[in-house]
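Please produce the structure of this protein holding zinc ion.
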Amino acid sequence: MFNVHEFLQKNAQTFTNLSDAIWEVPELYFNEKKSAQLTANALEEAGFEVTRNIAGLETALMGSYGNGPTVIAFLGEYDALPSLSQKGGVSTYEPIEANGHGHGCGHNLLGTGSFAAACALKKYIEETNAPVTLRFYGCPAEEAGSGKAHMTKAGIFDDVDLAISWHPMTSNGVMNMTSLANYAVKFKFYGKSAHAAAAPHLGRSALDAVELMNVGVNYLREHVEQEARIHYAITNSGGTAPNVVQAYAEVDYLIRAPRKKQVVDIFERVQKIAQGAALMTETKVEMEFQGAASDLIPNTILAKVMQDQLDNSPTLSFTEEDQQFAKEIYDSLDEASKASAYQFMTPQMKQQLQGHYLNHLVTPLLPEVLLPGSTDVGDVSWVTPTVQCSTACWVLGTPAHTWQVVAVGNTPIAHKGMLYAAEIMAKTAIACIENPKLIDEAKAELQTRLDGDVYQSLIPDNI
Ligand SMILES: [Zn+2]
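Below is the modeled complex.
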């Protein structure tokens, strides 16, 4: 019988080399050229047929193997974050390059872990002749730009029966959660400049329009769904001279809510406020789409299958050296982060982890929660049953998007977590292949959850 664990351990070096190589070249959204290339090369070497440039995105790619009727997809990512440059394997803040990029969300591991899972499943298919089409998707721009939302809109996942992914974190468990749908849009106001003292009556202030718009939206907050979030940043205030009436100003808005439809409704109201602000100030307003993601639809059938794999696989084991380094990283965290280290844990788990800085325990399947953030996996989950796990690649208490994530991202701690995730994902796929009824049930559950709703991308057509 094919042994996933053995296969991954035997080929561990191939996978850790790839993830370290991607860690070395942190690239931002839609610019992941080297990372996509490294991944494409690895897929080809592993015997996958590689298609680049999918969905019209230069850094999106697909590796496929087999041509059976059941289509199983692993989702990988490889984008990094700005201003998070950091040396690996050190426990103090030491950027490699001032203001450089860094893998502060562990997507070097995410892409490679999913690739490793795909390699394990490929081997399984070879040995068993399972009637499966296996796909690995290299998905760009998760951090900004919502690559998967564009890919879903292009119909890339339409024939997929099951999508599996993961995310590096501080715990080992099924990510049984929904997330907030979002819509990011820039409002650009055009006014007229004038000497603010000599001829104020001739000026029309774009900055006034931005301020009035924000005031309007702040009044709107009381009248939206409890879980909705509206954030803004003034990305251009019209200049630094108070004695010049600001002819141009812009503000970026990010609107989030539990359901896509709610985001659309709130966006419509925000647009009315923007038009109101333009009317009040006699300026003109234009919008520029920035990004959008759908809410994540979890799947209980698949969550249980994945939990089974977690409950029945060897758990993570860390060396003295891992623990020592983890303690140093833990000591570098602020008190609030340390205090959050044991969030979402049962009292028993907290007790078992006393004196540990890395989490080797499996979290039991928790009731569905709403993640107060967004992910572009959401779009995929609308068109095909989707399941994700997390594994402990980071030190307890480490928040995402920090230098501490980058610092552990190419160490044995992260490598172990990545291979563990690959094992759980591959085993989840195999469990579904060997009991195809599960896939049918997962699909039926998705339809029930959609309740007649159909996927409609939030991305405007002209993008
Ligand atoms: Zn991430």
